[in-house]
Write a structure and sequence with these properties.
Layout lengths: L1 H9 L3 E3 L6 E3 L2 H13 L6 H4 L1 H9 L12 H13 L13 H15 L4 H14 L2 H14 L11 H4 L7 H7 L7 E5 L2 E7 L18 H4 L2 H13 L6 H4 L5 H22 L44 H20 L1 E3 L5 E3 L5 H10 L7 H4 L2 H9 L19 H4 L3 H19 L6 H4 L4 E8 L2 E11 L16 E11 L3 E8 L3 E11 L10 H5 L3 E10 L2 E8 L6 E2 L5 H13 L5 E3 L5 E2 L12 E11 L3 E4 L7 E4 L21 E11 L9
Parallel strand pairs: 1-13, 4-9, 8-20, 14-16
Antiparallel strand pairs: 2-15, 3-4, 5-6, 7-10, 8-9, 10-13, 11-12, 11-17, 17-20, 18-19
Helix pairs in contact: 2-7, 2-23, 4-7, 5-6, 6-7, 6-8, 14-16, 14-20, 15-18, 18-20
Bound molecules: 2-acetamido-2-deoxy-beta-D-glucopyranose (3 copies).
One 2-acetamido-2-deoxy-beta-D-glucopyranose binds next to loops.
């Protein structure tokens, strides 16, 4: 070992830098739009009380008289027709999983989307904010900002600020309505601030033998839930590729994105000594209960599901349906053919196959046959939520699974998606394994791979939620800020140190996966069986020089992660400072990402064993990934999850350009975080 290190020192090493996401400096036009977008999401439920000027401006806008200002008059007419007949009243709960409510929201979204210019969009949104149901308005508005050409990369406030009741438990929100009860007060700048402390669900009603609660800090993490919200806005199931020009991997991203969430979740289970997920049967009692202590903004509680309960009889019709649809999808996977809606059949063991499969499983607008394959995603949520049927079409009580911002809180989510991801594996396992030559590149040799000490800990984080609360309008003073202080998982920043020997200068792709080492029963995982649990934490392209290349990659750079968004009040005052003075305002050309804090699963005091898999290969072709949410990024054009995405055949991933490495993740309690080991 030592002679090798010494040699390394003598040889000329090249240091290779990584790329960052672009930041841009905002111009005046951007700043003005950005400010208006934030204004449009400010206290959505009280437009008239909060700013009468905006309210009046919205009420003055006449859509019908200005129909020539929208590029798709049919979309305008459709919306107006609905609006004049009936739409979900303000104050009621909204969910995308009720077809008539979805139709209303889509009509509103299309009205926003087809406004010819920003001014028309702005006026339309001001009007809608006064007159349309808040939930429909918020979803349509977020999607319009994400899709419109003239609002490219305009930032959106994190959803936990706009809809805090979808992210925090009732007892905290209840207290926060009475600022005077707060035991912590601060004055920061021009704002009076009241802070309430919050815990995760389990501490209030502990069910001693219900182990799923151990994961509440993860499943209820507001950053994780906001990530899932944005993930599902990336290709909303209700949009069709033909209308919105989607890339042809939406179905594949749906499957792989969920597989990644599942793998991240499994790592968190392991470190909490929880076994693998059990299977379930639609005919038998369902193990995982869910006891949310959450309340919708209209006062109705989130539905609960008792542990080990039978599926209620009012779900039977959906159960019949989902069983048929699951078996149709299985036969598509096993025969290799998906039936279109006419006489066409589509073969799925080719380049486009995974995408076709993802589309029929999600049952999105691109599904080749919605009637035949339905949507097991939607049906599964409908059944497992245990919520009652609405008594009239505008009185719904959706379950946590029927709202993207709350789905990850319910343990049933992971049972359902295990089933869906199993379909993905079934498809993958029918494919021919990679041939060794497709994976081994002898001209690229990993000389060393090390990682700084990995330490996780809990830190307190304050979320401003006043924007989503009912406030007494105040004439002159700024409204006070109400914040919730909650502990959240984080880790110390760390670096990967990689040395690669390349026989010539080339563009290479590096992939790093994090996976389990031992099962929850402390049994060593065998190779093929554990590969599917590996979670891709980084993937980037770099230029290698001939000879030795020393690479340092920081955890902050990992390809899909993002730091916490600034609280809106901070963001907004920076905007104003830039508008009314010459301060520059920088923004990222992306809206959201996976929370960097959650890159690593919680460790253990004595160190929790995991393993990393490092893989280096020449770039096949560069693929320019573009997304209004995740930003632009250049990838090596290979399948999602490459090279771990196919069955293994007499190969143990033991080439020179790949490496497994055992690691330990440590966890520090709050009180000893500043002690250095
Ligand atoms: C309402 O908005 C207008 C225009 O943006 C602004 O001048 C006014 O101060 C605001 N009023 C209140 C009460 O915030
Ligand atoms: C949080 O939970 C701890 C026990 O785990 C309890 O002592 C504390 O009072 C709780 N705090 C709040 C604000 O609910
Ligand atoms: C089949 O779907 C296409 C669009 O995907 C649609 O244009 C066509 O009308 C459908 N045919 C039938 C028979 O439903």
């Amino acid at each position: 070992m030592f002679p090798r290190l010494w040699l390394l020192g003598l040889l000329a090493c090249s240091f290779v830098n990584a790329e960052y996401y672009n930041t841009k400096t905002a111009d005046k036009d951007f700043l003005l739009k950005q400010k208006k977008v934030y204004n449009l999401l400010y206290h959505v439920s009280q437009p008239a009380e909060i700013n009468y000027t905006w309210y009046e401006e919205g009420q003055k806008w006449d859509i019908e008289a200005n129909i020539n200002l929208y590029s798709n008059p049919a979309a305008v007419k459709e919306f107006l027709y609905m609006y004049k007949n009936s739409m979900l009243p303000r104050g009621e709960v909204f969910s995308l999983y009720y077809p008539y409510l979805l139709k209303e929201m889509v009509a509103l979204f299309r009205l926003f989307y087809y406004a010819n210019d920003f001014e028309t969009f702005y006026k339309t949104a001001l009007w809608a904010r006064n007159n349309i149901n808040e939930g429909e308005y918020i979803i349509a508005f977020y999607n319009a900002v994400i899709r419109r050409q003239d609002t490219k990369f305009i930032q959106l406030p994190p959803p936990y600020e706009v809809c805090p009741y979808l992210f925090f438990n009732s007892e905290v929100l209840q207290k926060s309505h009475h600022a005077s009860l707060s035991d912590l007060r601060e004055t920061s700048g021009e704002y009076k601030t009241y802070i309430f402390r919050a815990n995760y669900s389990g501490w209030y009603m502990n069910r001693e033998y219900y182990l799923e609660n151990k994961l509440n800090y993860f499943m209820e993490d507001i950053g994780l839930n906001a990530y899932y919200f944005f993930f599902r806005q990336s290709f909303p199931f209700w949009m069709s590729s033909s209308e919105f020009g989607f890339q042809d991997y939406r179905g594949a991203e749906y499957l792989y994105g969920h597989q990644q969430i599942m793998n991240r979740y499994y790592l968190e289970r392991l470190t909490n000594e929880l076994p693998n997920l059990e299977d379930f049967d639609w005919e038998k009692p369902f193990y995982a209960g869910y006891y949310p202590t959450m309340t919708y903004q209209n006062g109705l509680p989130f539905p609960q599901r008792p542990e080990w309960s039978n599926f209620p009889s009012y779900k039977y019709k959906y159960i019949t349906d989902i069983k048929d649809k699951e078996s149709r999808i299985m036969s598509a996977i096993d025969t290799g053919y998906v039936f279109g809606n006419g006489t066409t059949k589509y073969y799925i063991y080719n380049e486009d196959g995974l995408n076709i499969l993802g589309n029929i499983i999600e049952g999105n607008e691109d599904s080749f046959n919605q009637r035949f394959y339905g949507s097991i995603d939607a049906l599964g949520r409908k059944i497992l939520g245990y919520n009652l049927e609405p008594s009239s079409k505008y009185k719904i009580l959706p379950s946590a699974l029927e709202i993207f911002s709350t789905s990850l809180r319910d343990p049933a989510f992971y049972r359902l998606y295990k089933r869906i991801v199993d379909l993905y594996y079934r498809y993958k396992m029918h494919q021919t394994p990679y041939n060794k030559d497709e994976l081994i590149y002898p001209n690229l040799k990993i000389e060393s791979f090390s990682i700084d000490k990995l330490i996780t800990y809990f830190e307190q984080f304050d979320t401003t939620i006043s924007n989503g609360l009912f406030m007494d309008a105040q004439k002159d003073d700024k409204l006070p800020l109400i914040k919730i202080r909650q502990p959240r998982l984080n880790h110390k920043p760390f670096n990967f140190h990689i040395t690669i020997n390349s026989d010539k200068a080339m563009k290479a792709a590096i992939r790093i996966f994090l996976g389990p080492k031992y099962s929850s029963h402390h049994k060593l995982y065998e190779l093929p069986e554990n590969l599917k649990y590996f979670y891709e934490i980084d993937n980037w392209i770099l230029d290698l020089n001939a000879g030795l290349n020393k690479i340092t990659r920081n955890s902050q750079e990992c390809f899909f992660t993002i730091n916490d968004q600034e609280p809106s009040e901070v963001f907004y005052s920076k905007l104003e400072a830039s508008l009314y003075s010459d301060k520059t305002f920088n923004y990222y050309e992306r809206i959201f990402g996976f929370p960097e804090r959650l890159l690593l699963p919680k460790g253990k005091k004595e160190g929790m064993p995991f393993q990393l898999f490092l893989y280096v290969s020449p770039v096949s072709t560069e693929y320019q990934f573009t997304s209004r949410i995740w930003g632009d990024y250049k990838f090596d054009n290979r399948p999602f999850g490459f090279p771990l995405d196919k069955p293994l055949d007499n190969f143990n991933y033991d080439g020179p350009n790949m490496l497994f490495k055992d690691i330990l993740i440590y966890h520090k309690e709050e009180f000893d975080i500043n002690i250095t080991y």
